[in-house]
Structure formats: structure tokens, C-alpha cells
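Title: Prediction job returns without error message
Component: structure pipeline
Severity: low
Priority: P3
Assignee: unassigned

Description:
Job completed but the reporter wants confirmation the result is attached to the right record. Sequence as submitted:
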Amino acid sequence: MVAEIARDVQNEAPLLPLIIDRVGVKGVKRRVKIGELENPSFFDVEINAYVDLPRDRRGVHMSRIIEAILDAVKDERVGEYKNLCEVLKHVGRGLLSRHPYSRRVEVEFKTMQYMNVDDDVEETVNVSFFLLLHRKGKVEWRIKVEVEGMTVCPCAQAVYSSLEKVEPTRGLSHTQRTRLSIDVKTFDRPASVDWLVKAALESFSSPVHSLLKRRREYEVVKSAFEKPRFIEDTVRRAFFLTVRKLVEENFGPETEVEVVGESYESVHPFNAYASKKGTLREALKETSLEKPIS
């Protein structure tokens, strides 16, 4: 005869009756399949999932969080999802149904996508999808991309061209690889990863490339030196392009955009950093975008 488990410790009163804002699992690794049943796309995803815990419960049942994740990503669901955001919603609803005492749940997917930078080789982009789902129906999305590119220092180029008496774009300068992150918080519907990646790539002096033959390398360097940019220029441009696209796509005025840039300096023993954050409402007061926002 198998003995029964007498206690469910998680359901007992806590030692201290305090609300826990977020409790759950972090770093769950799974392969997610989306798209058509016959030809799905695969994403290796790191998953974080949390619920809030009321003051009268000692703990959550961690296994129920894992069950919600596994139910959403199981092979039998291939063909149900068009994109990763739909998988996040399935996990979120599963968490709410398995934790009736929770008021809200949070789900985050971290993965890597391949994007077309040129015709030769796709480059990798780090992408994070974040969903905050309230039991009463309120939805918040955050989409974040991290993209690397090359920047050319305009100050060094201007000094060199002045002292050497050459055309500005012919002036030598130092270059560096720069990492941009664009993080967009929206309500009801998420921003597109493609939009954010495009905004980042158009903000560097040049994208970076895994494969460069000599002629193509010459073209990349020449193009980059024709568009020298400080880290400040890069962050401002990425912010502006992101805001402009979100306005065009009719996102609400409280949509938030945060751009962070870090430049891995080649002539200094430290990195350069810049960031810009604001809502669409705030951004339109600063920019020359003509479309009003109500």
C-alpha cells in the first residue's frame, strides 16, 4: 500500500504574510516549433515564467508552471502558431488557469533569429519577447532586439581630414563594433521584430558581416566612412526610426521605446554608452514628425 501525502505545504499560511510580486521559473530551455505542420520553423528558446502570490499562500506549485510551458510547446501543437507571440499567450493563459489565486502572470522568451543583412549570409539577432497578462484582461507586450553594427568616429575623421587637407569622407578615423538594443513596450499587440532590426541596421555607419570578400569589404568600409556616427547619433537615429514606424502603424501614445547603445572602442580602454527612453507622446514633442497623436 502506497502512503498518501498528507500535506500540501504550498497551500499553507506563510511564515510572514507578505505578497510576492513574482515567483516562478527562470532559464527553462525548450525548442519551439511554429508555422506550417509540414515545414515548421524551429526556435531554441530560454523561458522565464512567473506569477504573483497572495499573502495567504506559502508558495506556488512550480510543477504547474512547467506544465503550462510544456503544454504550449509540445509537438502536437505544431501548426497552431504563426509566431512566437502566440506561444507566449498560450503559456500565459495556461499559467492563469493553473494558478487561480494569481492576478497576473509574466512570460519571457529569449531566442536568436537569423535576419537578412545582405544577399550572402544571414546574421544573428538576439530577440526577447515579454508578455504581462492580467486576469482582468489587460495585456502588455515588450519586444527587444540586440543588433551589432560598425560605427566610424566623426571627430577623428574631421580632425584628420582638416590636418591632412583632404576631403572629409577621405579622412581616416577609428572604427568600432557597436551594439544597439531597441526595447518597445506596447499594449494589446506587440511590435514587429523586423521593424526594430531594420531601425537598428539603418542607424549604424554600416552593418557588420560574417562573410566579406575583398571587393565587398572595400564597399562596406567606403560606405561606413561616408556615414560617420557617434554613439549619440546612432541612438538618436534608432529611436527616431522606431518612433516613426510605430506612429505609422497606429500604436498608442503611451507606447514606450528605449534604445541603448554601447560602443566597443578601438582606441580607448573603455566603452562608450548612450541611451534614450520615452513614450510616443513624449517623442513627438521632440521630433519633427507631423502626424499628431491623440
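Comment from assignee: result matches the submitted record. The mean pLDDT is 92.
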